[in-house]
Amino acid sequence: MELNSIVEALLFASQEPLGVPQMCAAVKDTAKDILGAATESGEAGEGAPVPEWVAPLAEVTEETIRASLDALIARYEQEKHSFTIVERVNGWRICARGEYAEWCRALYPGKKVQRLSQPALETLAIIAYRQPITRAGIEAVRGVSVDTMVQQLVDRGLVKIEGRADLPGRPLLYGTTEAFLDHFGVKSLDEMPNAQELRRVKLPTAEEGQAQNAESPAEQLALAPVASQEAPDAAEETPDGE
After folding, report:
1. 118-231 has the same fold as 3-105
2. What gap in Å lies between CA 92 and CA 70, rounded to an integer?
3. Which CATH architecture best describes the domain 118-231?
4. Which of 43, 110, 124, 173 has its CA 20 to 30 A from that of 28?
5. β pairing state of 91-96 and 133-134
6. How far is CA 230 from CA 32, 116, 225, 236, in A?
7. Gap between the Cα atoms of 9 and 4, Å rounded
């Protein structure tokens, strides 16, 4: 038995994403338990010898676990498996490849994928790139009321209330959730398209919202790259499409 197979078994057995530290601890602790039990059995004059491959696993490192993950991904690709291993914000998981998404959805005939409308995507992009941001700040960029869109995003778990701004009236501040990262297949906000550049773009303020720039909000925030990632692979989607 080799480390790659053990890592594969851990991922297969877990219903939740597993972090590298979790997998490393599981391998090391189990190996130490096996070695400890063998020592006690040996002192008692009973028990079978421990396989020689167990002892090195008691000293496994996170770097070794990552190397095993890379090896598994490469093997799945080479052997053209219908599944692979992906890293998400909460860890690693085994999932079906995107080209098999329609077949996997057949398991949930009563559930349809709920895609975001263009207005919702634009609102979500503004929040994602400029969070934390107030509703008035979003409306200053879009030029329209966003009450419905923001509430829809909150209800879907893609946006959350981060607190209140230190402004008159103490308006709510909005930011994205971990579900947002998982939905669009990124591990952090820095992996979003043109993240650093778009965070520096000067946006209209709430006071300037009545006199919008000639440039459209879609052009200011380059929403197309975000929208293009709207379709996650099969295992990334929950049965209701989130």
Report:
1. yes
2. 11
3. Orthogonal Bundle (1.10)
4. 43
5. unpaired
6. 44, 8, 9, 11
7. 9
Work out the angle at residue 164's Cα, subtended by the Cα atoms of residues 223 and 145, and round it to the nearest 5 degrees.
45
Under CATH, which number does the domain 3-105 receive?
Answer: 1.10.10.10
Amino acid of residue 43:
E
For 12-70, write each residue's pLDDT tens digit.
999 889 999 999 999 999 999 999 888 877 654 555 678 888 999 999 999 999 999 99
For tokens 């700040």, the residue is: 137
Separate counts of helices (H) and strands (E) for the chain: 12, 5
3-state secondary structure of 193: coil
DSSP 115: P
CB atoms within 10 A of CB 52: 7
Is the pTM here over 0.85, yes or no? no
Angle (deg, nearest 10), helices 20-43 and 3-13 = 120
Q: How many CB atoms within 10 Å of residue 44?
A: 8
Q: In terms of Cα–Cα distance, which of 222, 226, 215 is closest to 143? A: 215
